[in-house]
């Protein structure tokens, strides 16, 4: 099988889309598939990503990456989007490669700069299937990035919903890894939804022997946090990740700790990520009295050891379509505190693999966080349950599920041609 993948991003950008794509490509290469990946050119971000050229050309046997001309993506300084001017080159390369199937990650985001449904026109001309993968609910992001009156916001969201549904309905299938997200997509009017366990985890990399008593001092040169209870936040420092709520809640954490004969000096916050909210987060956290370990953007290779040497993974994001960092925390044997919202609820069994709090409810968030902080045996039990649960969700299994759908679509296209 020859597959063309058009993606809104790739390494060295680090997010759920790019990490997922990297693991899929490794699996495709091991199985001796041919794949060509089209993604934005990151040359203009060379100061942020000095190694970007390590992820272009033939990156794995049978896997080639073509970086297309790109433009900025909204106001996020570390992101790019494929430009409209890249479209002729995209079509030219597709004609040269002649794929059996086209897979598009985040076609709604790509549409914002291409003004086309990526891959669809070529696929129809070539009589091959073209499938889309729904990674991000951009409709819910609108309120985080645009200060609009409520009535304007709702109207904008309704218009966006119609446009996004039209976009995804132009594909042969819309794939998602979350039953909750699939339900939302159908409510939006998307009629071709296919849901399965399309995401996985590289479980063997999360080995308990990565734990060491002086990890943060030895690895990052950060003093005084190795012996504290470490709350790790992993991901972009952007409004859509729930940082406004998290900052307000953490500002009241010290008061809750006192009730449990603990203090802010017993806690360390570990922030692994970067983004436009960094300065605000830095200023506010510094006033709360907690030790803070700022790691910045870390490569995927460092994630297993980071999580294994932390104590609780905290996320305030209500808009995840699945939550890849939650799966990574599970593999590390780490309990997760997350809102009961979005695709995350498909991953966490409340009270068994982690804790879910009522979205927007500071009291519930803080009570459950303090409970985890104050009960190491509870953390250990939840973490063990989570690690046992996630062990079956390998990337090998996830790509098996994906290939099954791809093959179904190819067979259907061949069947349609024969009639």
UniProtKB/TrEMBL annotation:
<feature type="domain" description="Glycosyltransferase subfamily 4-like N-terminal">
    <location>
        <begin position="15"/>
        <end position="192"/>
    </location>
</feature>
<keyword id="KW-0808">Transferase</keyword>
<keyword id="KW-0328">Glycosyltransferase</keyword>
<protein>
    <submittedName>
        <fullName>Glycosyltransferase</fullName>
        <ecNumber>2.4.-.-</ecNumber>
    </submittedName>
</protein>
<dbReference type="InterPro" id="IPR001296">
    <property type="entry name" value="Glyco_trans_1"/>
</dbReference>
<dbReference type="Pfam" id="PF13439">
    <property type="entry name" value="Glyco_transf_4"/>
</dbReference>
<dbReference type="InterPro" id="IPR028098">
    <property type="entry name" value="Glyco_trans_4-like_N"/>
</dbReference>
<dbReference type="InterPro" id="IPR050194">
    <property type="entry name" value="Glycosyltransferase_grp1"/>
</dbReference>
<dbReference type="Pfam" id="PF00534">
    <property type="entry name" value="Glycos_transf_1"/>
</dbReference>
<feature type="domain" description="Glycosyl transferase family 1">
    <location>
        <begin position="226"/>
        <end position="388"/>
    </location>
</feature>
<dbReference type="GO" id="GO:0016757">
    <property type="term" value="F:glycosyltransferase activity"/>
</dbReference>
């Amino acid at each position: 099988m020859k597959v063309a993948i058009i993606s809104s991003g790739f390494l060295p950008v680090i997010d759920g889309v790019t990490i997922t794509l990297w693991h899929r490509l490794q699996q495709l290469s091991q199985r001796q598939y041919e794949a060509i990946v089209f993604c934005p050119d990151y040359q203009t971000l060379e100061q942020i990503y000095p190694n970007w050229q390590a992820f272009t050309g033939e990156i794995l046997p049978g896997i080639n990456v073509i970086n297309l001309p790109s433009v900025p993506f909204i106001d996020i300084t570390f992101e790019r989007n494929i430009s409209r001017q890249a479209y002729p080159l995209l079509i030219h390369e597709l004609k040269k490669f002649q794929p059996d199937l086209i897979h598009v990650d985040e076609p709604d985001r790509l549409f914002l700069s291409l003004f086309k449904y990526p891959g669809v026109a070529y696929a129809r001309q070539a009589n091959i299937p073209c499938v889309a993968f729904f990674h991000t609910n951009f409709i819910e992001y609108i309120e985080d990035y645009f200060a609009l009156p409520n009535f304007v916001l709702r109207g904008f969201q309704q218009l966006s919903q119609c446009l996004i549904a039209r976009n995804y309905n132009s594909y042969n299938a819309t794939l998602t890894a979350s039953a909750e997200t699939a339900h939302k997509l159908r409510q939006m009017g998307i009629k071709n939804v296919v849901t399965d366990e399309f995401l996985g985890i590289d479980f063997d990399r999360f080995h308990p022997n990565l734990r060491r008593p002086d990890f943060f001092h030895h690895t990052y040169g950060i003093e005084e946090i190795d012996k504290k209870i470490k709350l790790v936040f992993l991901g972009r420092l952007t409004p859509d990740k729930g940082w406004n709520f998290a900052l307000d809640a953490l500002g009241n954490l010290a008061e809750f700790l006192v009730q449990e004969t603990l203090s802010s000096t017993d806690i360390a916050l570990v922030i692994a990520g970067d983004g436009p909210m960094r300065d605000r987060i830095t200023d506010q956290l510094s006033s709360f009295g907690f030790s803070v370990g700022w790691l910045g953007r870390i490569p995927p290779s460092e994630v297993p050891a980071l999580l294994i040497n932390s104590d609780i993974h905290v996320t305030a994001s209500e808009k995840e379509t699945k939550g890849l960092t939650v799966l990574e925390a599970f593999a590390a044997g780490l309990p997760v505190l997350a809102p009961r919202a979005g695709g995350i609820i498909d991953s966490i069994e409340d009270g068994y693999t982690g804790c879910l709090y009522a979205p927007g409810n500071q009291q519930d968030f803080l009570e459950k966080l303090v409970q985890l902080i104050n009960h190491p045996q509870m953390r250990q039990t939840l973490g063990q349950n989570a690690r046992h649960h996630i062990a079956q969700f390998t990337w090998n299994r996830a790509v098996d599920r994906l290939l099954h759908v791809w093959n179904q679509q190819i067979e259907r296209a061949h069947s349609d041609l024969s009639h």
